[in-house]
Every structure is written in structure tokens, then in C-alpha cells.
């Protein structure tokens, strides 16, 4: 029994060391690594990202999260109608090729793309752009200084072409990234979530 406990503790220790090493490596590469609890506080347009992902691209569920406030418009619109407040364009560009994509483009600047490997699969968010974000209770909008993000310890990474970024990843989920692009004054210029292929 004592040997089993020692073995279990050794395995646990190895696992924790590997996790700590991965976090350290991600940090050295310029990523801001946050815990799952903090990552799950992220909101776009005041809606939890976890709730957006849970819709799996279902049109009705997305409409419940982002209702169209125009009384005359009761459903999705075409691109021609995008001048209406909170209107949305929904496209399925892969219908011709058999790819399973669904894109939601809202007039307020929110764009969400869902993808599935096969017809009938649950769709997953692979791309999202927004004009505002909330992380751990701190809301930022395009144009706000990144220094307002006081709820996490972030790293500013210098990218190509003198771009500056804060790349937020969830601990253990390094293939997906939330990129906060900054201008030369460290003000937020783009909010973009994407899944690395």
C-alpha cells in the first residue's frame, strides 16, 4: 500500500512539473497564460464566451444571446440590411463545397465563425472578432489603453511589422489564442480569438 501511495505521488508530481514547464515555456514565448477559472470569465459584447461556444452555431441560440432589438426585424437579415442596429448576417460559405461553416456578422462589430469537421457534428468557434472584451471583470473596448486590464498579469509581445500583442491562452490549451492587438500607444486596436490550424 505504501508503495502505491509513493507511486501515485510521484506520478502527480511529474504531472505538475510538466504543467509548470508548459506554462513557463508559453510565457517565455510571450503568451499570457491564465487559469481556466479566469479564462471562463471572458465576455464579448457582455456575453460569456463559454455561452457563445455552447451554442455550437445554432441560429436560434445565438439569437437568444444576441437579440435583434429592431422591432420591425424579427430574424436574420441580408447584408443589405446591415445598417439596422443589432442586425446580423448569417452565412454558410461551405454549403457549396461541403465544408461545415457558419458565420455570424453583427452590425455592432461582432463576428463569430463556427466550424465542424462533418455534417451533423457540433460546430466549434474557430474565429471571433469583437469591439469589446471583458476579462475577469475588466471591460475593454477598442481604443482603451491595455493598462486598464488590471485583473491579470499580461505580457506585451512584439510581433512582426512592429505589431504589439497581448496573446491570452488558457493554461493547457495552447492551440487557441485570444489576441489583443495594440497600437503604438499601447491602446487596444483589435480583439481576435482564433484556433491555430
Structure description:
This protein is α+β, with helices and mostly antiparallel strands and 197 residues long. The protein has two domains: 99 residues, no CATH class; 86 residues, no CATH class. The protein contains four helices and 13 strands. Strands 1, 4, 5, 6, 7, 10, 11, 12 and 13 form a nine-stranded mixed β-sheet that branches. The protein has a four-stranded antiparallel β-sheet with strand order 3-2-8-9. A hairpin with a 5-residue loop joins strand 12 and strand 13. It is globular and about 40 Å long. The chain starts with a helix and ends with a strand.
- Rounded mean pLDDT score: 81
Q: Please, how many helices?
A: 4
Q: Tell me the major beta sheet.
A: 9 strands, mixed
How many DSSP-defined strands? Answer: 13
Order of helices and strands: HEHEEHHEEEEEEEEEE
Q: Give the CA-CA distance, first to last residue.
A: 45 Å
* Helix share bin: 10-25%
Shape: globular
Number of domains: 2
C-alpha Rg (nearest Å): 20 Å
Share of β-strand residues: 25-35%
